[in-house]
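Subgroup meeting minutes
Present: P.N., E.W., G.H.
Scribe: E.W.

1. P.N. recapped why we're keeping a running log of single-chain structure predictions: easier to compare across weeks, and new members can see raw inputs and outputs side by side.
2. G.H. added today's entry (286 aa).
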Amino acid sequence: MASSVNPTVRRRRLGQELRRLREQRGMTAEEVADRLLVSQSKISRLENGRRSISQRDVRDLCGVYEVDDQRIVDSLMQMAKESRQQGWWHAFGDIPYSVYIGLETDAASLRVYEPQVMPGLLQTPRYAEAVVAGALPEASAEDVEKRVKVRLRRQERIHDRKSPLRLWAVIDEAALRRTVGGRQIMRDQLEHLLELSRLPHVTVQVLPFAMGAHPGLNGQYAILEFPDAADSTVVYLEGVTSDLYLEKAGDVHSYSVMYEHLRAQALNVEQTREFVEDIAKEYTRG
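Output recorded in log:
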């Protein structure tokens, strides 16, 4: 049964605490690995939150770091226990981007640039199905259905009355022009985009072709920020077979600056709505 505890976030926080303890002792990851007779890569994966960590691992690391305060040890052990629980997405089976879903589920705000398709959180069911089926031509109907269900479940963050996700989306004109699933699906999708863009916590801007070259030419990315100051901002880059998560301050700064340039070059909110409305009418006339 899925837990209300977010295991992805627990792993990240636990990894940050373990890194802090190691650095306080003035030890390198290689030195810790030698003491525990494990690989250096294991220590790195534990610290970056990409790998589940057992209570035994926590106990051994606390021993190496000479943590005397039992309350700290108990707290870290509890975090390790919670990090091995299942999030809601595990009910759907093996999801390749489950780490991202865990981060998005706990994020306070999300800034995303999409050059080819509508952002997943703003997609209609029929558009989402067409996108998934087109992107994964060898996927079974069952797998496509599962991915669409996960995408729709993720969208609940947008409509959460108590703590909605603050979403800022810059979308390239190509995503509006690409006829995914057919003209009626596109018409419905653009009307849906307009509707969501009027929510107070959702901002949508279109980057038109006329703008020419811009900082987003290298492709899609997302910037996730969290309500707890202890959780570092994450830049997410989606790949075909693997994803990349950047947390170093320099990397986050570079992508944040790039996003500010994208927002400045894109149409403003009102211009975007007029632009989307005009394209939606084109799909109707066709």
